[in-house]
Amino acid sequence: MLPTISIIVPAFNEEAVIGECVQSLVNLDYPEQLLEIIVIDDASTDRTKEILSGFSRIQVLSGGHQGPSAARNRALKLAKGEFVAFTDADCIVPPEWLKELMRGFESDLIAGVGGIQKPRQDASEMELVVDQVFNLLGFVANYSRKKPQLGSIDHNASCNVIYRKSVLIELGGFDEALWPGEDVELDYRIIKAGYRLVQNPNVAVWHKRPANFSQFNSMMYKYGQAQAYLVLRYGPFRKIHFIPFVLPIALLLFCSGTCIITLYFGLFKPTLGILLAGLFLLFIFGMRTKVIFSPRALRILVATFYQWHKGFYFFLFNRRKMLR
Questions:
Q1: How many whole angstroms separate alpha carbon 15 and alpha carbon 139?
Q2: Is residue 191 a contact partner of residue 154, using CB atoms and an 8 Å limit?
Q3: What is the pLDDT of residues 130-175, one digit of tens each?
Q4: Are residues 253 and 187 in the same domain?
Q5: What is the pLDDT of residues 227-281, one digit of tens each?
Q6: Which end of the chain is least crowded, N or C, by CB within 10 Å?
Q7: How many Å apart are CA 314 and CA 312, to the nearest integer?
């Protein structure tokens, strides 16, 4: 017997994508009487609310522009479903989305089941390369990590996940002081409470990626801040948390070795070490993900490390309150 499910989607100024997202939710292959769709318009200033008014099957809540975590928590308190599913306003879900996610609940200890992300069909070249880089870094950050088959995982992205509502209520929902990274923090507490998380790699949502470098740089900076927040609160608990401490030492050793080699052969130039390091990273990353060795890929890769570490160190040393 299928359970009741509430789908929760936070939205702020999403007029360009919210219609497609909600339409895909309305088209889900799931009994209408067992399904509740809640969209939180978080004080949008564009046509988001107007577009949402065109869908009769959804419940629209008004948020106080306190961020996605607060919006989700508000909807969670009102949700009637036994399970609550989350996706983002810039995602499109397949018709079988909920049924595929529910396949992962093989025991009562499983608190949540997630899937993977794919670029949308109308994705630009920039978005496609960003997606490749995200997949590459998935082995460190679990943001776009894909398991070979249904099995345990320590984090599912909030754009494609479903939880037992009782577990979220028990643990107090999302940390409203945190965004992004609120889904990482929630999953950490879920596992510490003795529950399990599962990923079903056979269910994907089509997720929009940053369309330009300005958006990408801003996103990576915020990701870095979020991880520093988590390290200060819980200590390092993910592979990515150790990178800011290990990478400087690795780079120092690499650059020192490069200088010694180039001096020995009489080829020393100030930019040679940087060039060799960049080519080495591209080679390793290209072997893992078949990323095209292009100027755009290199720029995104460099921006990923630079902006993420910039946000991480800035927050870590300033101990500032997390800002939305």
A1: 33
A2: yes
A3: 888 777 665 444 555 566 677 888 899 999 999 999 999 999 999 9
A4: no
A5: 888 888 887 655 555 555 555 555 555 556 556 555 555 555 555 555 555 555 5
A6: N
A7: 6
Per the CB < 8 A criterion, the answer to whether 322 and 226 are in contact is yes
Q: Which domain holds residue 66?
A: 5-211
- 291 and 198 in a common domain: no
* SS3 per residue for the chain: CCCCEEEEEEECCCCCCHHHHHHHHHCCCCCHHHEEEEEEECCCCCCHHHHHCCCCCEEEEECCCCCHHHHHHHHHHHCCCCEEEECCCCEECCCCHHHHHHCCCCCCCEEEEEEEEEECCCCCHHHHHHHHHHHHHHHHHCCCCCCCCCEECCCCCCCCEEEEHHHHHHHCCCCCCCCCCHHHHHHHHHHHCCCEEEEEEEEEEEECCCCCHHHHHHHHHHHHHHHHHHHHHHCCCCHHHHHHHHHHHHHHHHHHHHHHHHHHCCCCCCCHHHHHHHHHHHHHHHHHHCCCCCHHHHHHHHHHHHHHHHHHHHHHHHCCCCCC
More reliable by pLDDT, 28 or 138? 28
Residues 245 and 180 in one domain: no
Indicate whether 170 and 290 sit together in one domain: no
Tell me the angle at which helices 125-141 and 213-234 cross, rounded to the nearest 10 degrees: 10
